[in-house]
Amino acid sequence: METPICPTCSCSLIRLKISRDKAETSRYKGEQYYFCCQGCVDIFIADPQKYLQEINDFIVCPTCLAEKPRPLAVKEEIAGREVYFCRCPHCLDAFRERPDYYINRLEWS
Asked: Fewer Cβ neighbours under 10 Å: the N or C end of the chain?
């Protein structure tokens, strides 16, 4: 369950309600990256390695859509999958009530 994060500003494109067809894109070393705006693409192009390193281990909480470094997140195994949450107990409780809703919400279209 990979959720797109703008490499430059570290924002979840799902939280920003930016669909795959509306996201700005840029290629680096044969890989396509998605961005929230052209300004972030322009900044990224100047030093792509720096920005990719910064978001290398980021997750998006499926409940509140907050972006977090993985070491600051809480991991739960759900249906054989590792799912990471922000540290808010409410997010995990809400997720447990409606797991399918929150998992489906993270699917980027």
From this structure: C
